[in-house]
Specification:
Blueprint (H helix, E strand, L loop, with lengths): L1 H23 L7 H21 L5 H33 L6 H33 L31 H12 L6 E6 L6 H10 L1 H6 L2 E6 L6 H11 L12 H9 L4 E8 L2 H8 L10 E6 L2 H6 L6 E2 L5 H13 L7 H13 L4 H12 L5 H9 L1 H5 L4 H13 L6 H6 L9 E2 H10 L11 H14 L4 E5 L6 E5 L2 H14 L7 E4 L40 H6 L8 E3 L12 E3 L4 E4 L21 E4 L5 E2 L12 E8 L21 E6 L5 H6 L5 E5 L22 E5 L13 E5 L3 E2 L3 H5 L6 E5 L2 E2 L2 E2 L11 E5 L5 E2 L11 E7 L17 E7 L1 H16 L6 E5 L17
Parallel strand pairs: 1-4, 1-5, 2-3, 3-4, 9-12, 12-13, 13-15, 14-15, 15-16, 16-17, 17-18, 18-19, 19-21, 20-22, 21-24, 23-25, 24-26, 26-27, 27-28
Antiparallel strand pairs: 6-8, 7-8, 10-11
Helix pairs in contact: 1-2, 1-3, 2-4, 3-4, 5-6, 8-9, 12-13, 12-14, 13-15, 19-20
Amino acid sequence: MAVAAYALLVSLTHVLDDVHYRAQLRRLHVDIKRIESLQEGVNFLLEFLEVNHRSKSKKVGNLWRQISEVSLEVEEIFDFHVVSQLQKDSQEESSDMGAGSFNEDLDTMIQKINNIKSELSTVEEVVEDIPVGKQTRASVPAGGTSTAVSSVGKNAIVGLEEHVIKIKGELARYDGNLQIIPIVGMGGIGKTTLAKKVYEDKYAVDRFDVRIWITISQEYSVNEILQGLINDGKVERHCGNSDGPGEVLRKKLYGRRYLIVMDDIWTVQAWDDLRRFFPDNGNGSRIIVTTRLSQVADSLGSHDPYPMIFLDPNTSWSLFCQTVFAEEDCPHQELEQSGRKIVKNCRGLPLQIAVIGGLLAKSGMTTEYWESVAENVSAFGNASDGEHCLNILLLSYNNLPIYLKPCFLYMRSFREDAKIDVSYLIRVWVDQGFITIKEDKSLEELAKEYVNDLLDRNLLFVRDRDLGTEEILSCGIHDLLRDLCISESKKENFLCTPREQEIRPQSEERVCFLCSVSVTETRNFLALDVIPPSAWHCNPPVCGHCKVTYSHIKGLRFVKVMDKDGVAHDSLVQHTKLCYVSVSMHNPPKFISPSTLHLLWNLQSLIFKESEMVVLPSEIWELPQLRVIECKCVVFPKPPHAHVKEKDCFVLRNLQHLTWARNFELTGEILNGVPNLKELQIKYDKRMRESDTCLCNLARLQKLETLSVKNTLQNIGFPNSLKLLALMRCRIPWSGMSMVGSLPNLEFLGLFNTAEGSEWNPAEGEFLRLRLLAIVGSDLVHWGADQDHYPVLENLLLLNLPSLEEIPSGVGDIATLHKIVLRNCSKSAVDSACLILEEQRSVGNDILEIDVSDNSDYEVEDFDEDEDED
């Protein structure tokens, strides 16, 4: 319950922040001091949870439950009163009358939180005495033989032969200094099995005078580990002297060649606590460390981490057969089809293959049973022996800081083997309210750090990276870990408010208005409506899954925001707690005038996936929580006229992402209304292309990091904060690139049918931080450049440059350059690239790669759309 309580409290901090902001601007009638009192109470509970969330006390568990219930109740009260006041304001009715009841409800909530605080103070002393985890035991193999390794399958070494050879090579490598060899990978990937195989290999037995195996868990005692090592190492005769156990061990190892395996390290501190007892004898001693955490592996220093990856299909099948039959292949032809299906569903994770194989080895070899296992590998893998598999992975979950646990548990919402877009994942974590507010970083920056943290812990894995920027584009979660998310969510009672909705075109098929799945029932979900019953024929339908998932929700206020030709449809109904709305409609939706969009007061992401053009209503300026507006083409309105005292009322202080804004008029009032914009994509049609659209004013957006401009002939003002710039059909002469090159933070530059002229001679002192340069479509013939012009360039992409005579040879001397991609370029340019590669190979540069093709299948967005669009 601690994770559920924590997630709901963090979400509540965002609601309180928004209400406080609106109240300060006098857009809500509520006592600010009461809001601040609530904020103080919520922050206290958050701090208490962060310190004591591992407590297993039944009394504390009941308090976590109370916190969850109160958090949901507070959010419901805010939604009721805020929507009521906003609705009255839009109908030009006085909302002052509702302030009294609003304040009374807040008093009740403040008292409930104070009661919880009082109860927490009575158990605080007990909570502090509760152990946060099992004490780590040192397990040292007697007589130098390891007994402290995974018990899953004695034959589970298939697919490790190549790894064993590589690690043995590191043991034998001529380097007298003590070397630390980290093996890193997710739980169950085979790290311990590989280390065991190397540890017990005859070469290691013969080469090393002393071999010691240490298993270290999350909570460990240095003295306990050291004493266990000394005793099992048969050095008891030294234990009676005045030296401590660490010094005894150090003396034992001094002058001898030793191999130590430190299995399952969780922190750099664990290594630091023990490393001083391992002397560097200059004789080729080695320490192998296994860890799930890439950050820990990177910190060990003396050796690049050795990564463990998923098994390929053939190796997975071999491992499966070894585990089930102790043979290289399946001896029962009738079982092979279902067996291969089982292996495929294990997704290459050795531990799960071994667990499922162990179950099948003990079962009857019947086709029916194997087919039933194949239908639900996860269910069988989580039973009996399979519990061992999940328990190992559970260590990774339990080791997470509490702020990461809601994000990890949310991964259950993705389907098995899903390819998860990282930008979407970041957005949805923010919209769900999982990310804590910090003054020095945006929510998106923090969410990105959370993604990287889960990747470092091998709880997620990378699927795709951007070829140019190396940014992670998509990730995945192994099915076994997804099962863990599901089981832990149930234990935690990890409840969520429905905050996402995908709106699709109305059809004869009824779909759930929350998840868009087809439904056959038409029963009402909840009774409380903002829309009068006469406005549409019935409440929107909800599928059975959502009714169960959100059964704890007592009421939702529905609002009709978008409508085509004034006709209401179920598919165009939202509820006021929504944070993420995605609209999938070919015909551009029309907003009712005046719009009720502002009643979606929690809205943070507004996405139009298929609409060619959307004209937003002026009420968009009344959504200070809004962070993302995304569309193929969106007409952004001017802010409503406001008096001087109300100038801050129409500021989208959280808006960070706006695409593609059509004919965006960069006037002072608009730019002042989006002060924290970080990503902007704008384009102009032929009516606006040569008009005064004030693009020079872009320099005022001092937090803008990503800018894409399409179809303009104007001079553009670039803010110094830019990191990524894409210019498309902007008709800038090569001589004008000096203005771009002078941007101090620019790392990625894309010129798409933009630069004009046959010659480019960049000046020194430009593009000092540029990592990627893409030139797509140009009449460039002569390019005068060398390593001084792009000193940190990593990737060079040249596409559709038929006139370019050559790539300057000096470009090859850029020390950081590792890839040049050419598509549809002249033969002489390709020849020059090959010559650069040849020259670099001759001086020992094995990093640089050349990728050449005559086709245009390289993944670049098609920016050559019709210039005459209107």
